[in-house]
Amino acid sequence: MYNEITNAMWASVPRAFFEAVVRIWWIFAMIVAVIAIRLYLALKHDVRTPLEFVGLIKKLVTKQDKIDTAFIPTIRKHDFPKDFEWINNYTYFKFGKYGVLRFSKKNSKRKNAFRLLTDAKGEFVKTQDIAEKLGIEAGEARIVMNELREKIKNIPKIAKYMDIETNYTGGYRLAINPLLLEQEPNENNLEA
Fold first, then answer.
1. By CB count within 10 A, which of 8, 51, 77, 191 is most buried?
2. Which sign, positive or negative, has the C-alpha torsion 72, 117, 162, 172?
3. Cα 134 vs. chain centroid, distance in angstroms?
4. Rounded to 10 degrees, what is the CA torsion of 91, 92, 93, 96?
5. Whole-model pTM above 0.90?
6. What's the pLDDT score for residue 101?
């Protein structure tokens, strides 16, 4: 009798295993789908870790925002407006009819960094060059450039026409939107 029970039990194992697989088929389908998605992301987008996947999602979500705010066509050195100039011993930078950016301190890092950008007239200036000319480390130069960018963004009349762009390889430039400069400004937008 013991042998009969053992034989019956072993005979029912394959059947039980088959029934279990049939009942939970969706788990196997999910595993196959996850493997396929990971393989696709690894081969197509070079995403190998969960953090890289989150970065890819953020990049795809914010892609539309970057297109709206970025100045795709920008003015280069030969087209830089002549009425964009420093006035009053480098205390103010006048954006023609569009507004004025004021620097309160005589030798502030932000003013000197902005002066480097305006001297480049729309061309990229390397972070290392900015750091050397300001006498600071490259990391601090990036902080100064981000502070400048925030200062400009806080003045909507100027931020509408220009921005400080980075090329993600260690350079910054003053990017001016030529499409907006072709429009005549309102009389109310003359100073920032």
1. 191
2. positive
3. 25
4. -150
5. no
6. 83
List the strands of the sheet with 171-176, edge to edge: 125-126, 171-176, 162-166
pLDDT in tens, 80-132: 777 888 888 778 888 777 778 888 777 788 888 999 988 888 888 998 999 99
End-to-end distance of the chain based on CA atoms, in angstroms? 98
> For the chain, where are the E strands, in sequence order?
84-87, 92-95, 100-102, 125-126, 162-166, 171-176
CA dihedral sign of residues 136, 95, 167, 57: positive
Instruction: Domains for the chain: give ranges and CATH numbers.
Output: 2-68 (no CATH), 77-189 (1.10.10.10)
Backbone angle region of 59, left / alpha / beta, with phi > 0 → left and psi within -120 to 50 → alpha: alpha
Using CA atoms, how far apart are residues 114 and 149, in angstroms rounded to an integer?
10
Which residues of the chain, if any, have pLDDT below 50? 64-72, 184-192
